[in-house]
């Protein structure tokens, strides 16, 4: 009898060992990173040269290249208090926890319980034997169940979950980059408006003096009432433009407050005119972009997740093997519960194969392949979009730099024309209409110069964002 029990135990143990050895089999395609067309150089980078020294390249806190202490302080607040960034961090944590849930499938499930009961049998029950009619039953069973990952379904699920978690980490980096870039854009737009306001304030003062001069000339009989009216109109029109700048500035200030996680009523930024051009930002090589853009990294990780899901779908075609075991103690008396004769055990194994599912597994497999193809297409489109954004902003910076040089010449010419017109008016050679025309042209050109400078700063921020802001694939945390 003992030999027979030992043989049964050996058979069960041998079957379990065979299942464990088969556990090294993993069905499904091996992941290969999809290829994409990468140009050797950027089309719009013909005028760019490698930065010397390389310290000019954007790093973690890329906004520090602008050397603006107030901008640095605001950007640091985004990292700590922005609610969208916190939500993205929570999403990443959920993805990491999902991987832990998937990994639990690699291990057996163990349950334990304790029970105590008192049973009274009927005296008239069928097959009533010599056993006592009333008895106790004390039990301490432990059950073990293990769904053997023979075909790699669980391992593929873990692989997909890990890739998705890494994609979520890249998504978090993309949100972080986007929010910091948005704040920098709003900040420089606001500073551009401060420059507009400064220009309009000084122009209003100049026009007030011009109006006083025209009134004095009118009182002296050297100018007409029309000249006074024209000077008054020019002044009030400029005052209205000066006031109107405040509407846009307030909106940008409120946006900055929300980005830093504060109500708009608590944030007030002291006016500070934008005066300096953007620093040079070398874009690097196009091939570097694949490693520096978090959205590209996220798209590539989702391709691997899709590839792993194909393996999960394929594993469903093979038998599901479950190992089970139980053991513990069972006795009618509490005092003998933990003694050797009260012990019991059982081992079992089961293999289940679906014989007919009306094409369900085939449809799931096709769906997984289609999802993988979609993720590859999304990855390649993300790469193309990234190249476009870099090219767009390289072109914008290059063209705007030339435009700024041309506009500076226009500003100087307009200022010289205004000086000549004022001189001619004072000499009685020209009417005041010529002065107001020259004033309008000078103000328009000066505002255009400020607008170009603002656009250059915006394009600079967008270029840094387009090349990843100093981020690298190596920053994706292990999951």
Polypeptide structure, described:
The protein has 479 residues and is an alpha+beta fold. It has a single domain (2-114, 136-475), classed as Up-down Bundle (Outer membrane efflux proteins (OEP)), CATH 1.20.1600. The protein is 60% helix and 10% strand. The chain is built from nine helices and five strands; from the N terminus they run H-H-H-E-E-E-H-H-H-H-E-E-H-H. The protein has helices spanning 2-22, 69-81, 83-103, 153-219, 225-259, 286-292, 294-315, 360-426, 432-466, and strands at 109-112, 115-120, 134-147, 320-331, 343-352. Strands 1, 2, 3, 4 and 5 form a five-stranded antiparallel β-sheet that branches. It is elongated and about 135 Å long. Residues 50-55 have low confidence and may be disordered.
Brief characterization of the structure:
The chain has 479 residues and is an alpha+beta fold.
């Amino acid at each position: 009898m003992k030999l027979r029990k030992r043989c049964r135990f050996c058979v069960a143990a041998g079957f379990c060992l065979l299942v464990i050895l088969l556990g090294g089999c993993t069905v499904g395609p091996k992941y290969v990173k999809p290829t994409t067309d990468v140009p050797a150089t950027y089309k719009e980078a013909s005028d760019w040269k490698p930065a010397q020294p390389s310290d000019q390249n954007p790093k973690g806190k890329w906004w520090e290249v602008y050397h603006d202490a107030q901008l640095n302080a605001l950007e640091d607040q985004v990292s700590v208090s922005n609610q969208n960034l916190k939500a993205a961090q929570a999403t990443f944590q959920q993805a990491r926890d999902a991987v832990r849930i998937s990994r639990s499938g690699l291990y057996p499930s163990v349950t334990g319980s304790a029970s105590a009961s008192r049973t009274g049998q009927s005296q008239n029950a069928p097959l009533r034997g010599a056993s006592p009619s009333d008895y106790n039953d004390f039990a301490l069973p432990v059950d073990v169940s293990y769904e053997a990952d023979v075909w790699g379904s669980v391992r593929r699920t873990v692989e997909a979950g890990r890739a998705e978690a890494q994609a979520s980490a890249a998504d978090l980096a993309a949100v972080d980059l986007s929010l910091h870039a948005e704040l920098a854009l709003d900040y420089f737009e606001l500073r551009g408006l401060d420059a507009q306001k400064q220009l309009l304030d000084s122009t209003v003062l100049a026009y007030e003096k011009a109006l006083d001069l025209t009134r004095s000339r009118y009182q002296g009989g050297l100018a007409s009432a029309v000249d006074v009216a024209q000077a008054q109109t020019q002044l009030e029109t400029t005052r209205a433009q000066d006031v109107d700048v405040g509407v846009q500035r307030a909106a940008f200030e409120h946006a900055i407050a929300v980005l830093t996680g504060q109500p708009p009523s608590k944030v007030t930024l002291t006016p500070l005119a934008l005066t300096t051009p953007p620093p040079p930002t070398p874009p690097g090589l196009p091939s570097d972009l694949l490693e520096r853009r978090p959205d590209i990294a996220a798209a590539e990780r989702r391709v691997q997740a899709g590839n792993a899901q194909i393996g999960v779908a394929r594993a469903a075609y093979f038998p599901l093997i479950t190992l089970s075991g139980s053991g513990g103690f069972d006795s009618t008396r509490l005092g003998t519960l933990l003694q050797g004769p009260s012990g019991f055990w059982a081992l079992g194994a089961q293999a289940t194969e679906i014989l007919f599912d009306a094409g369900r597994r085939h449809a799931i497999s096709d769906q997984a392949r289609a999802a993988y193809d979609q993720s590859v297409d999304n990855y390649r489109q993300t790469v193309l979009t990234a190249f476009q954004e870099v090219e767009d902003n390289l072109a914008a910076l290059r063209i705007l730099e030339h435009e700024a040089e041309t506009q500076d010449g226009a500003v100087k010419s307009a200022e010289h024309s205004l000086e000549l017109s004022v001189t001619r008016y004072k000499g009685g050679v020209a009417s005041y209409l010529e002065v107001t025309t020259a004033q309008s042209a000078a103000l328009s050109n000066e505002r255009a110069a400020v607008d170009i400078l603002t656009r250059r700063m915006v394009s600079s921020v967008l270029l840094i964002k387009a090349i990843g802001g100093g981020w690298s694939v190596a920053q994706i945390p292990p999951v």
